[in-house]
Write a structure and sequence with these properties.
The protein is built from 15 helices and no strands. α4 crosses α5 and α4 packs parallel to α6. The relative contact order is 0.13. The N and C termini lie far apart (about 60 Å). Helix content is about 65%, strand content about 0%.
């Protein structure tokens, strides 16, 4: 019987294909040859593509959860997982109520600064578009959690995730991707180059999340014991490199929704563009990982697993802006430089400014994201700009002979994004700090956020819950 199965597969597949073809033919015939059936099919395929891409981006929440959980101490695992869970929940509600309205909302009062329509999706039915953009908004908020891990009140987290997904991030989306905006590439009145080019969000998504995380890390302060009295930087290792690695691969997989999905359709050349984007995304990730691995060996004498993970992610972040406009060789260069930007970003925050970022979120997402936006103005090809549908492809990368106008526009755009996010997130975090409070007490931090905030150990067989929650003064566990 086992040998007979392969013989049955071909006729079964032919039968299924025939039935599908008959179904399509019958639908087309039912529309009296007016072409509307073909339009319906094309529209359905494009909608399905956008939904599937959105599903992949949403699955990145699992990747962020595993990555950050692996990079924090064992007594903070449940806390960081709770934050990732609530990002998806709160992000969905706030982006439904006001986030979409501020980003893309259509009304008579819409302007170049902010959208002002379709609150709570009123008079709106483009649900696939909303779902895809919601997944991006939730990703931007999740980035912040890693930078504040290990010492932030859960109640404070609930406040800032609402504001990030409901206001700070949507305004930047309006600037960069809406059609009624001062700097975007899709307006009727582009005033410099192609407008700000950020195909899938190196600046709009990742830099926003990274800069918000930076402001939060400044406001909350470093973890206990991170910096010594003489200025030395003390390593506080994450407790599980295995799940961090799994998280990285889930994120990489989700990036194939993030970047190729940003074509928004498969019709009209979208399928070929998505295939190109998948290639540049892959090459940048690979170059980032290899560069981080070799550079860590050169600088430290070890092949550092944590830096390699973040090198891959930095390569992905860096290519996200120009993934549709650069050639494959340029994607390798952009990803490799992104990993170096990440590496020296970590050194800068730790050694120079003593800003504690437990998972490297600021360096991976903000610094590599800024580099990715700039790289568009350096490496984009004229053919890439044209294939991606930008209006003025004669303005392309400086290094390829396209002049400096596009680079100037990229610098203006990313400066606006960084400035807006730093100011608004700074106000937000310091307002929380001086009102409801941003940081847990020293005792709570020492005993572990899992027990104090959630009454649970992620690893009850090895953790302190058997006695610690009933009065123990010390907590053992990973990373201390």
């Amino acid at each position: 019987m086992k040998r007979a199965l392969p013989a049955l597969r071909r006729p079964t597949a032919l039968l299924a294909g025939g039935l599908l073809a008959l179904g399509i033919i019958s639908v087309v015939s039912a529309h009296d040859g007016d072409g509307s059936a073909i339009e319906d099919i094309v529209g359905a395929v494009d909608t399905a593509w956008l939904l599937i891409a959105g599903f992949l981006v949403f699955f990145m929440q699992a990747g962020f959860a595993m990555l950050t959980a692996g990079f924090v101490r064992s007594q903070e695992t449940a806390n960081i997982l709770m934050k990732n869970m609530i990002d998806a929940c709160v992000g969905g509600i706030s982006f439904w109520l006001v986030g979409w309205a501020f980003a893309y909302g259509v009304s008579d009062a819409s302007n170049e600064f902010i959208g002002l329509g379709n609150f709570a999706l009123n008079q709106f039915d483009s649900y696939a578009d909303w779902f895809f953009q919601f997944a991006f908004a939730a990703a931007a908020a999740t980035i912040v959690a890693g930078a504040l891990a290990g010492r932030t009140k859960y109640s404070a987290y609930l406040i800032y995730t609402v504001v990030v997904t409901g206001f700070i991030y949507p305004v930047v989306v309006h600037w960069g991707w809406d059609t009624t905006t001062w700097m975007g590439a899709f307006t009727d009145d582009i005033w410099l180059g192609n407008g700000y080019v950020d195909f899938a969000g190196s600046g709009i998504v990742h830099t926003v999340g990274g800069i918000a995380g930076l402001m939060g890390a400044i406001a909350v302060g470093a973890r206990l014991g991170k910096y010594g009295p003489n200025g030395e930087v003390r390593a506080i290792p994450g407790h599980n490199i295995s799940i961090a690695t799994i998280g990285m691969f889930i994120l990489w997989f989700g990036w194939y929704g993030f970047n190729p999905g940003s074509t928004l359709a498969l019709s009209g050349g979208g399928a070929a563009l998505a295939a190109s984007v998948a290639v540049t995304t892959t090459l940048a990730a690979g170059a980032g990982g290899i560069t981080a691995m070799l550079w860590s060996r050169f600088r430290t004498g070890r092949y550092d697993a944590g830096l390699t993970i973040n090198g891959i992610l930095a390569g992905l972040v860096a290519i996200t802006a120009g993934t549709a406009t650069v050639d494959p060789w340029a994607a390798v260069v952009i990803g490799a430089i992104g990993a170096l930007v990440m590496y020296y970003g970590v050194q800068l925050l730790d050694a120079k400014f003593r800003i504690d970022d437990p998972v490297g979120a600021v360096s991976v997402h903000a610094f590599a994201g800024i580099w990715g936006v700039i790289a568009v103005g350096l490496f984009s090809s004229e053919a890439g700009m044209a294939a991606a549908g930008y209006a003025n492809p004669q303005h392309y990368g400086l290094f390829l002979g396209g002049g400096g106008e596009q680079l100037l526009m990229q610098l203006i755009g990313i400066a606006a994004i960084v400035g807006w996010t730093a100011v608004t997130a700074g106000i937000l975090f310091f307002a929380i700090k001086f009102t409801v409070g941003l940081r847990v007490s020293e005792e709570e931090e020492m005993r572990g956020l899992d027990l104090i905030e959630h009454g649970i150990d992620a690893y009850p067989d090895f953790g302190p819950s058997g006695s610690g929650i009933f009065g123990a003064t010390e907590v053992g566990g990973g990373g201390k």
